């Protein structure tokens, strides 16, 4: 890109507009609470418990997506079959559906009016108002982000490498774990980041399924309604900062170990 | 050049004329922003339709939320708003007067009922005599809304306290609450309905109006405990619920009182004219109050303000629609 051309300046100014658009409201929110309020919130057990709950349920959702989404992403990246487009659109569905609808849909399967709900209640598994329920919802909304990221990762790896491995007598299993996986793990990590980022931000679907125990976004809502903006902002600040650090660390990890290869 | 300026002149004068004439006719027009309690959604939707037919230039934009949240949107988020109606008229007094509103008209009542569906456990034998035994059964899932956020939530707890006194069963309140894990609480009472209908919950406390509007089965309770009859206000006051106060860690006590809806116009309402017109319709016994009556929210005819000073603060056209009654 030549520096002098207007094209360059248009790109730069659009970039600046986007940055300001994202950062301005966030800065406003981050700087609103006083330091003493932030400190007091940090000592509030309920707040820390909800942030921790948010992080580990989102992590679990990413883990489940990793286990079940990776094979699916591989199939989608490597094979052509009738109805593939349909499968891909089904995977994207959770992104499109309004969040409260997701919650109600999950509850309607988990309720006594449904045989699965009956079975679960016989087994003692409860979705409504439980950590199981939260993880179910977060996996539902986060899964598409994982599958799409990893599918793109697999597609970027030439099938030829796998063919070589297969022709040398390696089984499909060992080809995947010794050739494909080492090349694709970074896209999986990105998938995990995307999935858990999406999961941490979820509010609408979770509040329908589980108000208690409270994840951080639900607590921010509860604090806002019960006590007003002044007491909900510090919780939001801590959630955003902790998540920012977590994701930054994950990103740096991908870069560092990525360089030598 | 001259021709152009003549056209410009004509255009401007037409616009000015149009503006002046529209001001002169003074018919309410534009957007009317209305924050109201979730339990008023159905009757207000019907009123919106009727009102917009009467004043086609007005577009009523309703936002339903918990009453406290409605007030917070005005006081904390500074969202522009013309009208605000609360399921507990005290919310207006507590959070909006005097900074954001001057007065508070009580316009309708409601009462608490215990809702259930055909699928609920013991649906075939529950009745007004044994409901508190059913709620204590281990295999029954019942819930109420968050007492800290939703008036229906603390009112549900008050009904249980009043039941303990009315049925003369000491310890009833504690015993019933012990069978309600925290997981069964939802922010708003209306959200409990989807839990009932999907079979995740057996019984839920709701307003009568909500039960009627959603075609739920329900148990009506005696006036002494259902918080629906203001003649029993002295009795209701004996029920006291502790809810969170102005900041985390602080608490305050709310005394029982009959369910009374309040409405007010916000001080710096962007469209005051339309707001007054809407209230004229809402407080009309043949208009809004009739709709409320049909939908399980018995109105006050006429509507009430607590003092003569408050009545004097009302817009002139509304003063004749209210009486002073505490």
Write the layout of secondary structure elements.
The complex is a heterodimer of chains A (261) and B (326).
Chain A: H1 6-31, H2 35-43, H3 45-78, H4 84-96, H5 99-110, H6 115-123, H7 131-155, H8 159-167, H9 172-201, H10 204-209, H11 216-227, H12 229-258
Chain B: H1 2-25, E1 30-37, H2 41-54, E2 58-65, H3 67-75, E3 83-86, H4 89-96, E4 105-109, E5 112-116, H5 131-134, E6 142-143, H6 151-166, H7 172-177, H8 191-197, E7 203-207, H9 208-213, E8 217-219, H10 233-236, E9 240-244, E10 251-255, E11 260-265, H11 272-282, H12 288-294, E12 299-305, H13 308-313, H14 316-319, E13 322-324
Parallel strand pairs in B: 1-2, 1-3, 6-7, 12-13
Antiparallel strand pairs in B: 3-11, 4-11, 4-12, 5-7, 5-8, 9-10
Helix pairs in contact in B: 3-4
Distance between the termini of chain B: 71 Å
Give the class of chain A from helix and strand content and strand pairing: mainly alpha
Which architecture name of the largest domain in chain B does CATH use?
3-Layer(aba) Sandwich
| End-to-end gap of chain A | 28 Å
Q: How many beta strands in the DSSP annotation of chain B?
A: 13
- The arrangement of helices and strands of chain A along the chain is HHHHHHHHHHHH
Total number of domains of chain A: 1
**Would you tell me the structural class of the helices and strands of chain B?**
alpha/beta
Strand content of chain A: under 5%
Could you name the CATH topology of the largest domain in chain B?
Answer: D-Maltodextrin-Binding Protein, domain 2
Q: What is the gyration radius of chain B calculated from CA atoms?
A: 23 Å
Largest sheet of chain B: 7 strands, mixed
How would you characterize this protein structure?
Chain A has 261 residues and is an all-alpha fold. Chain A has a single domain, classed as MetI-like fold (Orthogonal Bundle), CATH 1.10.3720.10. Chain A contains twelve helices and no strands. Chain A has helices spanning 6-31, 35-43, 45-78, 84-96, 99-110, 115-123, 131-155, 159-167, 172-201, 204-209, 216-227, 229-258. In chain A, helix 9 packs antiparallel against helix 12 and helix 11 (216-227) packs antiparallel against helix 12. The radius of gyration of chain B is 23 Å and the shape is elongated. Chain B is an alpha/beta fold and 326 residues long. Chain B has two domains: 26-109 and 261-324, Periplasmic binding protein-like II (D-Maltodextrin-Binding Protein, domain 2, 3-Layer(aba) Sandwich); 112-255, Periplasmic binding protein-like II (D-Maltodextrin-Binding Protein, domain 2, 3-Layer(aba) Sandwich). The interface between A and B is medium-sized, with 33 and 29 residues.
């Amino acid at each position: 890109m030549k520096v002098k051309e207007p094209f360059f300046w248009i790109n730069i100014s659009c970039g600046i507009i986007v940055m300001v658009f994202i950062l301005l409201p966030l800065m406003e929110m981050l700087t609103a609470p006083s330091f003493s309020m932030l400190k007091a919130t940090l000592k509030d057990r309920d707040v820390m418990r909800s942030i921790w709950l948010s992080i580990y349920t989102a992590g679990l959702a990413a883990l489940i997506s990793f286990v079940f989404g990776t094979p699916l992403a591989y199939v989608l990246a490597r094979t052509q079959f009738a109805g593939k487009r349909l499968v891909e659109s089904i995977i994207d569905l959770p992104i499109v559906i309004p969040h409260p609808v997701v919650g109600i849909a999950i509850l309607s399967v988990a309720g006594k009016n449904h045989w699965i709900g009956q079975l679960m209640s016989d087994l003692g598994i409860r979705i409504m108002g439980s950590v199981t329920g939260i993880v179910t919802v977060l996996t539902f909304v986060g899964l598409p982000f994982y599958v799409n990221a990893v599918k793109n990762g697999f597609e970027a790896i030439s099938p030829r490498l796998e063919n070589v491995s297969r022709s040398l007598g390696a089984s499909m299993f060992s080809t995947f774990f010794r050739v494909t996986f080492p090349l694709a793990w970074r896209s999986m990590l990105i998938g995990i980041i995307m999935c858990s980022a999406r999961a941490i931000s979820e509010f609408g679907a979770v509040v329908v399924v589980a108000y208690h125990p409270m994840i951080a976004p639900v607590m921010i809502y509860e604090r806002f309604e019960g006590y007003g903006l002044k007491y909900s902002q510090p919780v939001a600040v801590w959630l955003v900062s902790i998540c920012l650090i977590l994701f930054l660390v994950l990103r740096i990890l991908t870069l560092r170990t990525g360089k030598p290869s | 050049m001259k021709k152009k300026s003549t056209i410009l002149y004509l255009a401007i004068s037409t616009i000015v004329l149009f503006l002046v004439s529209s001001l002169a006719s003074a018919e309410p027009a534009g957007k009317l922003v209305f924050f109201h309690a979730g339990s008023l959604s159905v009757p207000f939707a019907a009123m919106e339709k009727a009102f917009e037919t009467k004043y086609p230039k007005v577009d009523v934009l309703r936002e339903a939320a918990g009453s406290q949240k409605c007030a917070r949107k005005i006081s904390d988020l500074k969202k522009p708003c013309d009208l605000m109606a609360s399921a507990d008229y005290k919310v207006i007094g507590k959070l909006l007067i005097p900074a954001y509103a001057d007065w508070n008209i009580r316009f309708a009542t409601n009462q608490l009922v215990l809702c259930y569906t055909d699928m609920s456990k013991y649906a075939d034998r529950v009745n007004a005599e044994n409901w508190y035994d059913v709620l204590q059964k281990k295999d029954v899932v019942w819930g109420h809304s968050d007492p800290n956020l939703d008036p229906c939530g603390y009112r549900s707890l008050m009904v249980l306290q009043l039941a303990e006194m009315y049925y003369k069963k000491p310890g009833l309140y504690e015993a019933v609450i012990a069978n309600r894990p925290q997981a069964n609480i939802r922010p708003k009472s209306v959200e409990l309905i989807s839990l009932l209908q999907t079979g995740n919950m057996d019984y839920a406390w709701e307003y009568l109006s909500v039960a009627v509007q959603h075609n739920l089965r329900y148990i009506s309770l005696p006036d002494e405990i259902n918080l629906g009859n203001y003649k029993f206000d002295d009795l209701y006051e004996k029920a006291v619920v502790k809810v969170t106060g102005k900041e985390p860690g602080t608490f305050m006590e709310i005394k029982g009182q009959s369910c009374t809806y309040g409405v007010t116009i916000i001080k710096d309402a962007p469209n005051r004219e339309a707001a007054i017109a809407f209230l004229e319709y809402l407080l009309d016994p043949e208009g809004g109050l009739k709709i409320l009556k049909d939908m399980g929210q018995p109105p006050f005819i006429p509507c009430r303000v607590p003092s003569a000073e408050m009545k004097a603060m009302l817009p002139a056209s509304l003063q004749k629609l209210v009486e002073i009654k505490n």
